[in-house]
């Protein structure tokens, strides 16, 4: 183990670590051989004192003069400080940047990752922690290429903050593409909850992950003789091993004490080793510290409270002594091998020592010192967030000022993308407790802090806030709207509707009640289980009819009316006119932007979806492109960005850009998976769209894989999907040859949508698939279904709707009538913005008419769309043409 006594004997070599050092040597050599070499990850784990830090020092030595090496370590008292370890790690690079250079180098990630790294002021919004994590991955990836070859060392990762571990886990999964070596050391079992899960992810990605073992008796004997001399006899060496259990740290410390005491390394002295060893950790170390004097103990306590990179000035202030007194005490601590370092800062020699000193501080004294430390940190200008780790340790004492400091700290944590740190501050504020007039506000802020990351947590806290007196009417309305949104995201739409209705019933007529009515209509509009859909549509039409869009409540109702009219298949021109009235100069109104919190994100999705299905794909694409950009700029990397990618991908699908659609939709599902696993509405939304796209491409087996992955089968969640999920599922089953199941699904779809009065044949094209499937066995019913669908399509009135209806009727007809209907379908679909549907009509027209020219045009369109199955069908038609 590479550890020795400052000013004492020779440094001791690493013992029984040949395999680990060889792995490190190979990894460093591979990294330095070529810029194109993939990166590596080494993980060393083991109990306290087993030699992890010594091994990390050896890796640093191996990489010295061959690579750039940056190192950081976690601290037991610093686990609650977000981004603490990653900031340590990147400090050599960050301090080299001027503000302008940092902005230029980080590019689009500056506003998102910059605040987390402490090199940029936070914006006014609350970035999604997943986006911040992605930003940190991107930033370190750039630094890795700039500083190649780069070695990153993270010691005591079990004490790293959760935000750093989230970055490290994500970064570890990217190392195949990056020229960087990451080496991580941690104690197994010392992390809990999410931090433990993240460490497991890091370990799973390691090549290799090594558990360090205690030294054998032979290795301990070798270490003993290397330290004390070859004359150390066998019984003495054996007793060193027995006393320390082969723990390298304890062995080195014990041997240093043997040297200090000038104990003879012989069997006659072996009995004294146990007493000496007790001073290396725990109570024995504390007793040794106390022998150094009261002032030295006070400084050691202050250092333990402060954690790592300990400022002598701050420690002196906390200990209540002058600078010169603190320096004399620090020198005595260094001589006793308790701390290292100098004027630039102090550090405990080993984490075991830091833990023992911290644990030895009487509880009342410890909390008082944390309180003074918080005051000192705040006074130094570092802000409430920096002081919050100390505030968390203060004993609750009904202190209103402390509550306000913790609320401010939570705000600062949220601004850099650390909602878990904000949650801890607000939960601690509740323990104080807050004054009655503040209590509900703290609960409300706690619910808002988790809105982007944990719908279930948000629900619990917002319900408590609403049940507690103290919120103004404006905040109550906002809390209810946020609660309903969280309930919907948690697939509890019915409860969300109830919460809105209950609050609206308490309010008089006015803007607040109108907002709640709009939100209630919105959630009803996507509720698949609504009992009186036609009645709701009539009420909404009556309410929205006279509105001009003079404020956002009216604009919201116009959007809801447009979406409802679109799903019901009412005239598309009226749908577009309603959408246009909800905009201001063709753009989203202030307060209705994609990242504005007052109105739910789904409202804007309804607006874009209404444009998309009314054949105004240019406007829909513009809106959803803006949505993706706005979410990314604001640092929203969770469910909102997932939905933005999904709807943009589906616009690509409607345009016939099937490859782009598939890429965007797969990205949507990737983002949704990071929010939560299972069958959340956002998963089903994107899955429905992706399956529809894959079927259009002719990739039914891939579509089946997606369906299985996301449980795309009854029972579905209680939300209306775009496109209709049941219609997509029926088409998938038919494509897979499961005809009976497909027919049953489409029949059930027809019954459900008819009961709700939803007749949009583009949004829910079940009629066309059902008619074609029934054509052979029940041609009359098939024709009736197609004829009814054409009536609905002509009522809606878009080129796409009418063209698709004509194409279905053509498929059911024969001879000249079929050819004539196909010709009309082609004419309508050529005028529509939906290139894939146009391509299908061309190919089917060519096959029906035996036209090589039409088949060639259809083939060209199919290839440009990425519709592989359709292209193959056209090629077969051309191969058989005369």
UniProtKB/TrEMBL annotation:
Report the Gene3D superfamilies cross-referenced here. Answer: Tetratricopeptide repeat domain
Q: What is this protein called?
A: Orc1-like AAA ATPase domain-containing protein
Kindly state which keywords UniProt assigns to this record, in alphabetical order.
ATP-binding, Nucleotide-binding
One GO MF annotation is: ATP binding
State the superkingdom: Bacteria
GO CC term (a single one) = cytoplasm
Orc1-like AAA ATPase domain location, by residue?
A: 16-183
Q: Name one Pfam family in it.
A: AAA_16
User: Which InterPro entries does UniProt cross-reference here?
Assistant: AAA_16, P-loop_NTPase, TPR-like_helical_dom_sf, TPR_rpt
């Amino acid at each position: 183990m590479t550890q020795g006594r400052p000013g004492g004997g020779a440094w001791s070599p690493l013992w029984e670590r040949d395999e680990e050092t060889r792995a490190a040597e190979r990894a460093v050599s591979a990294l330095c051989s070529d810029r194109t070499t993939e990166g590596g990850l080494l993980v060393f784990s083991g109990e306290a004192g087993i030699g992890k830090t010594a091994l990390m020092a050896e890796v640093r030595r191996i990489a010295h003069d061959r690579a750039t090496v940056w190192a950081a370590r976690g601290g037991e008292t610093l686990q609650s400080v977000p981004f603490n370890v990653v900031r340590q790690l990147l400090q050599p690079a960050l301090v080299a940047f001027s503000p302008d250079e940092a902005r230029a180098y980080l590019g689009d990630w500056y506003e998102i990752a910059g605040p987390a790294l402490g090199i940029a002021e936070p914006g006014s919004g609350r970035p999604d922690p997943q986006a911040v994590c992605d930003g940190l991955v991107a930033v370190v990836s750039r630094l890795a290429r700039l500083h190649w070859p780069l070695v990153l060392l993270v010691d005591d990762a079990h004490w790293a903050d959760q935000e750093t571990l989230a970055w490290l886990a994500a970064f570890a999964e990217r190392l195949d593409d990056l020229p960087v070596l990451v080496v991580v050391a941690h104690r197994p079992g010392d992390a809990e909850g999410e931090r433990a899960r993240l460490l497991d992810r890091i370990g799973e990605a390691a090549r290799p992950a090594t558990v360090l073992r205690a030294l054998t008796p032979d290795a301990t004997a070798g270490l003993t003789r290397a330290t004390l001399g070859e004359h150390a006899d066998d019984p003495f060496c054996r007793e060193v091993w027995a006393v320390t259990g082969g723990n390298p740290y304890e062995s080195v410390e014990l041997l240093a004490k043997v040297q200090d005491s000038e104990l003879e390394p012989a069997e006659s002295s072996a009995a004294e080793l146990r007493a000496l060893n007790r001073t290396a950790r725990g109570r024995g170390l504390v007793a040794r510290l106390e022998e150094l004097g009261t002032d030295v103990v006070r400084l050691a306590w202050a250092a333990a409270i402060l954690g790592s990179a300990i400022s002598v000035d701050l420690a002196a202030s906390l200990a209540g002594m002058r600078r010169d007194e603190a320096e004399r005490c620090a020198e005595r601590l260094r001589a006793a091998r308790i701390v290292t370092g100098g004027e630039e800062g102090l550090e405990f020699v080993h984490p075991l020592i830091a833990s023992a000193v911290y644990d030895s501080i009487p509880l009342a004294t410890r909390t008082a010192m944390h309180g003074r430390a918080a005051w000192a940190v705040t006074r130094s200008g570092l802000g409430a967030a920096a002081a919050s780790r100390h505030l968390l340790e203060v004993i609750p004492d009904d202190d209103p000022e402390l509550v306000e400091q913790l609320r401010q700290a939570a705000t600062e944590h949220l601004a850099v993308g650390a909602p878990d740190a904000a949650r801890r501050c607000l939960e601690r504020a509740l323990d104080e407790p807050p004054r009655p007039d503040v209590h509900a506000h703290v609960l409300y802020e706690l619910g808002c802090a988790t809105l982007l990351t944990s719908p279930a947590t948000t629900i619990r806290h917002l319900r408590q806030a609403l049940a507690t007196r103290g919120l103004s009417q404006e905040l109550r309305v906002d809390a209810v709207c946020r609660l309903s949104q969280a309930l919907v995201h948690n697939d509890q739409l019915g409860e969300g509707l109830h919460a809105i209705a209950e609050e609206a019933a308490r309010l008089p007529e006015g803007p607040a009640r109108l907002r709640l009515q709009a939100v209630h209509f919105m959630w009803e509009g996507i509720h698949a289980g609504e009992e009186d859909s036609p009645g709701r549509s009539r009420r909404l039409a009556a309410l929205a009819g006279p509105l001009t869009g003079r404020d956002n409540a009216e604009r919201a109702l116009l959007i809801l009316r447009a979406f409802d009219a679109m799903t019901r298949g009412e005239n598309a021109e009226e749908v577009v006119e309603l959408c246009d009235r909800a905009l201001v100069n063709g753009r989203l109104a202030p307060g209705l932007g994609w990242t504005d919190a007052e109105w739910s994100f789904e409202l804007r999705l309804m607006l874009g979806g209404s444009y998309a299905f009314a054949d105004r794909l240019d406007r829909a694409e513009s809106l959803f492109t803006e949505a993706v950009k706005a979410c990314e700029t604001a640092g929203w990397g969770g469910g909102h960005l997932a939905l933005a990618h999904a709807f943009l991908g589906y616009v690509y699908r409607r345009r016939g850009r099937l490859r782009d659609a598939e890429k965007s939709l797969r990205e949507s599902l990737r983002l949704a998976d990071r929010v939560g696993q299972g069958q959340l509405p956002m998963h089903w939304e994107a899955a429905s769209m992706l399956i529809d796209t894959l079927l259009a491409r002719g990739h039914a087996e891939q579509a089946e894989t997606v369906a299985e992955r996301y449980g795309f089968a009854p029972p579905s969640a209680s939300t209306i999907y775009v496109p209709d999920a049941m219609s997509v599922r029926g088409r998938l089953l038919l494509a897979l040859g499961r005809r009976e199941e497909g027919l049953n699904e489409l029949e059930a779809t027809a019954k459900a949508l008819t009961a709700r009065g939803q007749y949009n044949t583009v949004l829910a094209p079940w009629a066309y698939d059902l008619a074609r499937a029934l054509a052979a066995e029940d041609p009359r019913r098939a024709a009736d279904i197609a004829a009814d669908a054409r009536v609905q399509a002509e009522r809606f009135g878009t080129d796409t709707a009418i063209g698709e209806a004509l194409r279905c009727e053509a498929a059911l007809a024969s001879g000249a009538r079929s050819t004539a209907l196909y010709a009309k379908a082609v004419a309508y679909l050529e005028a529509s913005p939906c290139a894939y549907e146009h391509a299908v009509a061309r190919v089917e027209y060519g096959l029906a008419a035996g036209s090589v020219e039409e088949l060639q045009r259809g083939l060209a369109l199919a290839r440009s769309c990425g519709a592989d199955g359709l292209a193959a069908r056209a090629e077969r038609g051309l191969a058989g043409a005369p």
